[in-house]
Amino acid sequence: MKVITIDKKGWASGIEKTKSAFQVFGPVKEKEWHSFKALGPGEQPDMAYSNTRISPKFLVQPQSEPMFTYSLDEAVEDHHILKEVRKDTAPKAVVGIRPCDAAAFLIVKRNFDAPQYQDPYWLNAYNAMTFIGFACNTPCSTCFCTSAGYGPFNEAGLDVLLVDVGDSFVAKSLTDKGDTWLKAGGWTSAADASGKIEALMQAAEAKITSNVSTDKLKTRPTTQIYEAPFWDDVAFSCINCGTCTYSCPTCWCFDIQDEARGTSGIRMRNWDSCMFPMFTIHGTGHNPRGAKVQRVRQRFMHKLKYYVEKYDNGIQCVGCGRCIRLCPVNIDIRKVCNQMNDYDPAACVCPA
Amino acid sequence: MSGYQDKIKETAKRLLKEGSVEMVIGFRKGTLPMMNEPCFIRRPEDVHQLVWDSNCGINLANYLTDRKEKIAIVAKGCDSRNIVTHIIENKIKREKLHIIGVPCQGMVDKRKVAALCAGDIENVTEDGDVLTVTCQGAEKKLSRKEMLQENCTLCIHRNPVLFDELVGEPVAEQTGIDRFAEVRRIEAMESQEKWQYFEDLLAPCVRCYACRNACPLCYCPTCFVDESKPQWVGKSQNPIDIRTFHFLRAYHCAGRCTDCGACERACPMGIKVRQFTSKLNKDVLEMFGWEAGMTLEQRPPLDTYKPNDPNDFIK
Fold first, then answer.
1. CB-based contact (8 Å) between B31 and chain A?
2. Contact B69/A236 with Cβ under 8 angstroms?
3. Which chain B residues in 263-302 lie under 8 Å from chain A, judged by CB atoms?
4. Domain count of chain A?
5. Contact call for A239 and B62, based on CB within 8 A
6. Same domain for A184 and A243?
7. Facing residue for A236 by CB, picked from B40, B46, B267
8. In which residue ranges of chain B is pLDDT below 50?
9. What CA–CA distance (Å, rounded) separates B244 from B250?
10. Which chain B residues are within 8 Å of A52, Cβ to Cβ?
11. Which residues contact A93 (CB under 8 A, 6 or more apart)?
12. Which of A174, A207, A240 is where one domain is finished?
C-alpha cells in the first residue's frame, strides 16, 4: 500500500492532470449547500466542505436513468423493439467522497450484485468509478458512523483515502485503481504519516457523540419488533415524503416506467420510495402497506432488521445523518434504532 | 412563550383527565436544535412532553385529516385557518375538535439561522426576542424577529380565528405589511426572464413531495402526479413534469392556502415553493376579496359560482 504526500500547492494542478485520464467529480457549492458535479477544465473540488446535501449515490444510480428506447411507429423497421441505451463507462474519479458515502455503495452492492442476479446498469456504472475518499476531521453533530459500523476514516469501498494534515493531503492508496489515479495526478512523493493519521482519526472519532445500539437487532424475533407498540408514536409525525429515502446513500429502490411522447418512447428507471403509497399498490387496487404506520415501519424494519438478518453484515445505514437533518418533522433514525434494539416486550409498559 | 407552554400542558392535562378528548395533538421537543416534532398525547401523565416555542412551524391541521377521534389540537393563527378550511371541506367535524388557540409571534426559519453560523449548530435557546445560538462552542445572539420565516414576517392573522380557548392574550396583528412585493417583482418580469426564474427556482427539486405532504390542503387520496390510470404526469426528473407538478399543485391550493409556510419549511432542497402559492393568494384576494380560512360561514370562491365573479380572463 502506497502512502503519498500531496502538497496543497500542487493539488489543483494535479487534479487538472487527472482530468485527461478520468472524468472528475467533486463537491461544488451551489446556493447554500454542496453536491457532486462533473468538474470542467479549471474547476476544482471544494475540499472545505462538510458533506453534500443529497448523497452521491446518484453518480451510480441516477434518479432517472434511461434503459431502453423504442418506436411505436409501424413504418419503422424495428418498431416495438427495445434498444439498449448506450452508457458512458469511461473511467470516472469521485474526488472528496466521504467514507460513509463510499461504504454505502458496498451495502447497495449486496443488492445489485447478488449471486443470483447482477444488475448491469448499476455494476457498469460502479465499476467505472474510482473513489477518492476524504477523511472527516470534523464530523457533524448528526454523524453516527462509528456506531453504525463505519467511521470518519473508514477505508471500506475506497480506492484512495485522503487525509487533510494541514499544508498537505496524505493519500493512502488502497487499490490498483487508487495507484492509477495518483499516478495520473503526478503525485509520487512517499509520505510517512501513519502516526499523524492515527492521531487525527482518534480525534475525529472522539468528536462523534451521537450513536446507535445495534447489538440485539439480529437476535430479536422479527415479529416482536414488528408488533412493538411504539410504531404509532414513531410514525405519527411522518408526512410520507421521500426526503429520507432520496437523500439516503443506502436506499436503492427503483421503479420502471415507459414514457412515450408521440410514437417514440423511453423505458426509464426512477428512484422510488417505500414512503409513497404507490410503492406497493397492486394491480387489483389492494395496497398491503396502505397505512402510513406500515410504510414508516417498513423503512426502519428494512434497514435495521430485514437487512441485518439477510446479509449478516450490520445495518443498512452508514450513519451519515442526512435523513435526520433533512426530515421536515424530525423523525430520527437514531432514536428509532435504539427503540428497536432495546425493545423488551416483557418489560414494556404499553402506551395507551 | 414559556407561559404558553405551561398553559398548553395544563389545558391538555385537564381535557384528557376529564375525558372530553381522546388525544391532544401538539409538539414535543425534537432531537435537533430548532426542530420540534408533531406528536399526540393520550394520557394525562404524558403532557409534560408538550412544548411551545418558535420552532413549531409545521402546520398541525395536516394531522387532523379524516380522523374520527375527539381531538384537542394546538393551533396558531395559520393552523386555525387550515382547520376552518378542513371543516368547510368536510375533512374533520367541528364538534370533534377542541381547539387550543395560540396567539403567534412568528416561527424561526432554521435556514436563516444556519446561514449565519459556520459549522454545526449545537444549541439554540430563546428569551423574548433574543435567540442564543451556540455554534462550534461560541455563543451568538440573534434577533428572533429577524430570523422569522418569510411568511411569518408577512402574516396579518397571527391570532387564531377559531378556537375553544386561548392560551394567552391575543397579540397585536402586524399592520402596514406589503404582503405581495415579491409576487409583484416576479409579475413585472419579461416572459423570458420569468421562465428562467422558475426554471432556476425548480432546478434543485427531487420530487420527494415534502411540500405537498406537509400541506394540510393536499389530502387527495391519489394526487394527480401519482395517478397511473391514466397517467397525467411522467415520473422522471424531466423538467416539464417537475414544472407541471408545482404549477398544478399551486392551482389546487388557490383560495385555500393560508400561507402557513409548511411547504417551504419542509422542502429539503430549500426551494421557495411559496413563490407559486403567494401569486394565487394575491389573485384570489384581488379578484374575490378572499382570504382562506377566515370564516365557517362562506364557501371558498373556487367552489361557488356568483354571477358577478370576475371573468376578464375570457377573451
1. yes
2. no
3. 265-270
4. 2
5. yes
6. no
7. B40
8. none
9. 10
10. none
11. A18, A22, A23, A24, A25, A129, A130, A132, A181
12. A207
Residue B315: predicted pLDDT: 77
Q: Are residues A164 and A238 in the same domain?
A: no
Identify the residue whose cell numbers are 487525509. Answer: A163
**Co-location of A201 and A271 in the same domain:** no
Domain boundary among A207, A235, A263: A207
Inter-chain residue contact A255 with B58, CB threshold 8 Å: no
Q: Evaluate whether residue A79 is within a structural domain.
A: no
Query: What is the Cα–Cα distance from B313 to B315, expressed in whole angstroms?
Result: 6
Which among A138, A328, A352 is the nearest to B210, CB-wise? A328
- Of B84, B39, B41, the residue nearest B260 (C-alpha): B84
Chain B residues with beta carbon closer than 8 angstroms to that of A33: 270
Q: What is the pLDDT of residue B1?
A: 57
User: Cα–Cα distances in Å, from A28 out to A53, A154, A250?
Assistant: 11, 23, 22
On whether any CB of chain A is under 8 Å from the CB of B48, the answer is no
Length in residues, chain B? 315
| Domain span holding position A274 | 222-347
- Residues of B within 8 A of A332 (CB-CB) are 30-32
Q: What is the ipTM of this complex?
A: 0.95
Is A71 domain-assigned?
no
Q: Is residue A232 located within the same domain as residue A306? A: yes
- Spans of all domains in chain B: 1-107+155-175, 110-147, 178-304
Q: Are residues A28 and A151 in the same domain?
A: yes
Same-domain status, A185 and A316: no
Cell numbers representing residue A86 in the block: 448506450
Does residue A259 belong to any structural domain of this protein?
Answer: yes
Identify the pLDDT of residue A350.
57
- Asked if A329 lies within 8 A of B58 by C-beta distance, the reply is yes
Same domain, A202 and A228: no
Q: Which residues fall within 8 angstroms of residue A57, CB to CB, at 6 or more apart? A: A101, A104, A105, A108, A248, A249, A250, A251, A252
> Looking at the structure, do residues A311 and A236 belong to the same domain, yes or no?
yes
Query: How high is the pLDDT of residue A352?
Result: 47
In a domain, A66, yes or no: no
Give me the average pLDDT of each 10-residue run along chain A (352 residues). 92 97 96 93 96 96 97 95 95 98 98 95 97 97 96 98 96 97 95 87 96 95 96 97 98 95 95 95 93 97 97 96 97 98 80 50
| pTM of this structure | 0.95
* Cβ pair B34, B134 in contact under 8 A: no
CB pairs under 8 A between A and B: 113
